[in-house]
From TrEMBL:
It comes from the Bacteria. This is Outer membrane beta-barrel protein.
Length: 214
């Protein structure tokens, strides 16, 4: 009985309904472009500046079959214009929790998630074919009106490999009306490697535009 009570507490009485503050589903399609600048490793550990660009198409699905518990999936495909010139493809999935939802003059919700993903190495100059990694995510959604939506999402992916320790910090802030939105997305990739160890950092920043399917 105790286990059933805990399960009921986590999942709620049933699916979240549209219009209820617990309804935090988000299905979206978006395009994103970014300029990148940072340091890369040359030879035994020389710091060399580099820059480039990237263009991506992304599809995201966040759904809550239960009041408190759901899932978040995000996939992307794109190109990265660096000296290595590579495609960038990947997919991430997380178990998501909705610890906070509220209704008022501004409706809103907070989502937290933990999961993993698989994709090509970040940044591209590492040159590895692909890797799996863990994922931590969070998203804040604010709806001052039924036809308006603002959300900010953060994703952190730490990767430990033979090539070094890679940490990616991804932040996206958007706002929109009805079915469309515009925003800004930035990412910072940190790579620690070499003997002695050095930090190689890359910054990404650019606009994003998308459609809300649900």
């Amino acid at each position: 009985m105790g286990a059933l009570a805990i399960a009921g507490l986590l999942t709620g009485a049933g699916p979240a309904r549209a219009g209820d503050p617990s309804h935090v589903a988000l299905w979206r399609l978006e395009a994103h472009g970014a300029y990148l600048h940072g340091d890369r490793r040359l030879g035994a550990g020389t710091l060399a500046p580099y820059n480039g660009y990237g263009f991506w198409a992304r599809a995201g699905l966040s759904e809550f079959p239960w009041k408190w518990l759901g899932y978040d999936v995000l996939a992307h495909v794109g190109v990265v214009g660096t000296p290595e010139g590579a495609f960038d493809v990947g997919a991430e999935g997380a178990v998501a929790f909705a610890p906070a939802r509220w209704r008022g003059s501004v409706d809103g919700s907070v989502i937290l998630g933990i999961g993993g993903g698989f994709g090509l190495e970040r940044p591209a100059w590492l040159g590895r074919a692909g890797t799996g990694y863990p994922l931590l995510m969070a998203r804040l959604t604010l709806k001052p009106k039924r036809s308006m939506r603002f959300f900010a999402s953060f994703r952190f992916t730490p990767i430990t490999s033979d090539e070094g320790w890679v940490r990616s910090y991804d932040l996206e802030v958007t706002g929109g009306h009805k079915w469309w939105y515009l925003g800004l997305r930035g990412r910072m990739d940190d790579v620690t490697q070499g003997d002695p160890e050095r930090l190689y950092r890359t910054y990404w920043l650019g606009p994003t535009a998308g459609l809300v399917i649900r």
